[in-house]
Design a protein that fits this description.
The radius of gyration is 20 Å and the shape is globular. The protein is an alpha/beta fold. Strand 9 (85-92), helix 2 (97-112) and strand 10 (118-122) form a beta-alpha-beta unit. The protein has helices at residues 70-82, 97-112, 144-153, 170-180, 193-201, 223-230, 247-256, 308-317, 323-337, and strands spanning 2-12, 15-24, 27-33, 41-42, 47-50, 52-54, 59-60, 63-64, 85-92, 118-122, 158-163, 183-186, 206-207, 235-239, 262-265, 277-281, 284-289, 292-295, 355-358, 364-369, 372-375. Strands 1, 2, 3, 4, 5, 19, 20 and 21 form an eight-stranded mixed beta sheet that branches. An eight-stranded parallel beta sheet has the order 6-9-10-11-12-13-14-15. Helix 3 (144-153) packs parallel to helix 4. Helix content is 27%, strand content 27%. The chain folds into two domains: 2-49 and 346-375, Urease, subunit C, domain 1 (Roll); 52-337, TIM Barrel (Alpha-Beta Barrel), CATH 3.20.20. Bound molecules: zinc ion. Zinc ion is lined by residues 56, 58, 91, 122, 267, 303.
Length: 379
């Protein structure tokens, strides 16, 4: 069966043009300019962007991955798909090792079903000084056997590991990641510039939510932020929710780092899409007030209530990115990080038809995954 979407503004890496596209067997088979050769589903001038790729997300819609419940994991995936995330990692937070392994085993099944692109362990090998919303008494230094166990528990589906490179044995863990095809991400870290560079030299290639839960940038103490921003081997994660980072700090990053090295993430927790209230983040209690998630008692920021459609909207309206640039930081760059940019990440002939339809005010009206509508746009 073939689907033609016509009368659309199509956002490609090279620019935006008015035209049409055809989808067959879940793939984009033609992308054309102007009038479609045959009548299709008219989008009446709406915009098509590539489906969003979120490499750091814990929960949403009242459910989350860290609970280790399959039902909650499925709810989280469905919630973020409605907001345009067609590819995602499932992020766990620091918890007892048995719980982490059990959760990874459950998530591995959903990866095998094609619902998730992999598992992301955030912790437990992170800095107590920069633990944010991670439970301090559960933090530890990596040991080779333990580390291999955690990766093994994901049955080949662990894709990312956030760790602090200054911990004992952490550089061995980075090497272990690289050997196992797992992205080593520097985060929740008090590393100096030199310590961060040592990890990058071993193959660490992502900075987890740049600036947040990291040794701050000082003019004589450049730290992990400068290491990540100035080294071409590293992609930086940005939480663009208006809370985690001042918009001008995001502008500063955008002026120094090309969009091919910036991935917008949600770092969303269970309260995304939900009213204010009390929610769990793994073993921690989180209070959400005015959409801002903090540890109970007015503590550290504890994830976000962001969704990728809002991150995209903010990229245009708060950071003045062009549509192709916004598509790069929400889709193509994170797809590259996952090694999936030959399949997803842009509207290109031959790639999987993972698409988001946005109206004039950049609100989602449709979401398609592999040629099947998750939400069908009204013309
Ligand atoms: Zn996180």
């Amino acid at each position: 069966m073939s689907i033609t979407l016509s009368d659309a503004q199509i956002v490609t890496p090279d620019g935006v043009h008015h035209g049409w596209l055809t989808i067959e067997e879940g793939r984009i088979t033609h992308v054309g300019h102007g009038q479609a050769p045959r009548n299709g589903h008219s989008l009446a001038g709406q915009t098509i962007v590539p489906g969003f790729v979120d490499i750091h997300v814990h929960g949403g819609g009242g459910a989350g991955y860290p609970a280790g419940s399959e039902e909650q994991a499925r709810q989280t995936i469905a919630f973020h798909r409605r907001h345009g995330t067609t590819t995602a990692l499932a992020s766990l937070v620091t918890a007892p090792l048995d719980h982490l392994k059990k959760s990874a085993g459950m998530l591995a099944k959903l990866c095998a079903e094609g619902l998730l692109a992999g598992i992301h362990y955030e912790g437990p090998y992170i800095s107590a000084a920069r633990c944010g919303a991670h439970r301090p008494e559960l933090l530890r230094a990596p040991s080779a056997t333990e580390f291999a166990d955690l990766i093994g528990a994901g049955d080949g589906h662990v894709r990312m590991f956030t760790l602090a490179p200054e911990l004992p044995n952490a550089l061995d863990a980075v090497r272990e990641c690289v050997n196992a095809g797992v992205i080593a991400a520097i985060g929740h870290t008090d590393a100096t510039y030199e310590q961060a560079m040592a990890a990058i030299d071993e193959g660490a290639s992502v900075a987890t939510h740049l600036f947040n839960a990291m040794r701050p940038l000082g003019h004589r103490d450049p730290g992990p932020i400068t290491a990540a921003m100035t080294d071409d081997r590293v992609t930086v994660e940005i939480v663009n929710d208006g809370v985690h980072l001042h918009p001008k700090v995001i502008d500063l990053v955008l002026s120094a780092v090309p969009t091919s090295r910036i991935a917008f993430i949600t770092d969303a927790m269970n309260a995304a899409g939900m009213p204010d209230g009390d929610y769990p983040l793994g073993p921690m209690k989180v209070e959400v007030r005015s959409g801002v998630a903090r540890l109970a008692g007015g503590g550290a920021i504890a994830g976000s209530t962001l969704t990728m459609d809002t991150a995209f909207h903010r990229a245009i309206h708060h950071n003045n990115l062009t549509l192709p640039q916004a598509a790069a930081v929400t889709s193509l760059t994170p797809a590259k990080i996952l090694g999936l940019s030959h399949e997803i990440g842009s509207i290109t002939t031959g790639k999987q038809a993972d698409l988001v339809i946005l109206n004039e005010s950049l609100t989602i009206t449709g979401v398609m995954k592999k040629g099947t509508w998750i939400t069908q746009p009204t013309p």
